[in-house]
UniProtKB/TrEMBL annotation:
Primary localization: membrane
GO cellular component: bacterial-type flagellum; plasma membrane
Annotated spans, Disordered: 123-149
Molecular functions per Gene Ontology: cytoskeletal motor activity
Domain of life, source organism: Bacteria
Keywords, ordered alphabetically: Bacterial flagellum biogenesis, Bacterial flagellum protein export, Cell membrane, Cell projection, Chemotaxis, Cilium, Coiled coil, Flagellum, Membrane, Protein transport, Transport
Intracellular or extracellular location(s): Cell membrane
Family in the record: Belongs to the FliJ family.
Protein name: Flagellar FliJ protein
Alphabetical list of InterPro entries matching this protein: Flag_assembly_chemotaxis_eff (IPR053716), Flag_FliJ_proteobac (IPR018006), Flagell_FliJ (IPR012823), FliJ (IPR052570)
Biased composition (Basic and acidic residues): 129-138
Membrane topology of this protein: Peripheral membrane protein
Entry's Gene Ontology BP terms: bacterial-type flagellum organization; bacterial-type flagellum-dependent cell motility; chemotaxis; protein transport
Length: 149
């Protein structure tokens, strides 16, 4: 049964690939969530900082403090822009991980179907062989009885 052995090895390999891609996908999902969380923290901090400065500005703010505020907001905006790029790349990687996972799952299912068909064919062959042996036995018994009469 070289074919059955080969199919079994293919099934084991496909299962291992599926398990590996599931682990990779979980890691990619976690990275995506972390990058989105970091982006949200940056955006929330910027909003909070801007609200505090605007509240302070109502009472008056000196030019040095205003320039510091503008420089810091600029740095926050740059950080937010970079983090948005990280989130976008993370989304792409996660989508690719999903595609890879589904491809491995389809491959495993295909190999499983092939193995099942092979087992059914093998069972049918065994059944035919048993039927032939029974027919031969019956035929031999009938011919033996007819000769002995």
């Amino acid at each position: 049964m070289a074919t059955l052995h080969s199919l079994k090895r293919l099934l084991e390999h496909a299962q291992q690939q599926l398990d590996d891609s599931a682990t990779k996908l979980a890691r990619l999902n976690l990275k995506q969530q972390e990058s989105e969380k970091t982006l949200k923290l940056l955006v929330d901090y910027r909003r909070s900082y801007q609200n505090r400065i605007m509240a302070s500005a109502e009472d008056g703010i000196d030019p040095v403090e205003w320039r510091n505020y503008q420089a810091f907001i600029g740095k926050l905006d740059t950080a937010i822009g970079e983090q948005q790029k990280v989130v976008a790349r993370s989304l792409q990687h996660t989508a690719a991980g999903h595609a890879e996972f589904h491809a491995h799952r389809r491959r495993l299912k295909s190999y499983g179907t092939l193995a099942q068909r092979h087992q059914l064919d093998h069972a049918a062959q065994l059944s035919k062989q048993e039927q032939r042996q029974q027919d031969e036995h019956t035929t031999n018994g009938i011919s033996h009885r007819s000769r002995s009469r």
